[in-house]
Amino acid sequence: MSMGTTMTTIFLKHTVEDYDSWKPGFDDHASTREEYGSAEDYRLFHEAGNPNEIVMIGEWESAEAFQQFMEESDVTEKMGEFGVISEPEVYILEETEAKSAECTGRDGERRCQFYGGRLVTRGRRDDYAPDRWTGRELGRCQRVLGRSRINE
Q1: Percentages of the chain per state (helix, strand, coil), in multiples of 5
Q2: Which of 7, 14, 105, 132 could form a disulfide with 111 if both were Cys (CB 3.0 to 4.6 A apart)?
């Protein structure tokens, strides 16, 4: 997908017998998801206190591509093999708004921003000017910069 192309966001929730047994199967199925239009990026969550209640949020080329994946691929069979024990709860989402925190380098140029919950950076770690960040973005950038791989 080229930059600026609108993607469809998929929210999928289901229960698995055991997360640690399910996850390798999910990982092995990545090429099939990509074949049907899934972006490589996704986020996995579990319900607080219940690691077997899984939520996947991912990007797809279109709602139609995701529906085709659900209907035509081997995903239903594989879900059973991987230990999914509930019907998936699926929401096909269209973005209405997104806000990203930005941070600047010491030269005043934009060096990074938050996108999809991740810090996207450009430059070296010492290029960042935390004194230019304010409020929640300051704490968030400092926490993430402390453990992120910075693109050179």
Answers
A1: 35, 35, 35
A2: 105
Whether 151 is in a domain gets the answer: no
Q: Are residues 25 and 76 in the same domain?
A: yes
Domain that holds residue 34: 8-93
Residue the block writes with tokens 């640690």: 20
Residue 28 forms part of a structural domain: yes
| Residue 14, SS3 per DSSP | strand
The number of distinct structural domains making up the chain is 2
Q: Which of 3-7, 54-58, 65-69, 122-126 has the lowest mean pLDDT?
A: 122-126
User: Of 22, 40, 16, which Cα lies nearest the Cα of 30?
Assistant: 40
DSSP state of 105: B
Token readout for 7 is 């993607």
Structure confidence by residue, pLDDT tens digits, 74-96: 999 999 999 999 999 999 998 88
Same domain, 85 and 106: no
Give the contacts of 118 (CB within 8 A, at least 6 positions apart): none
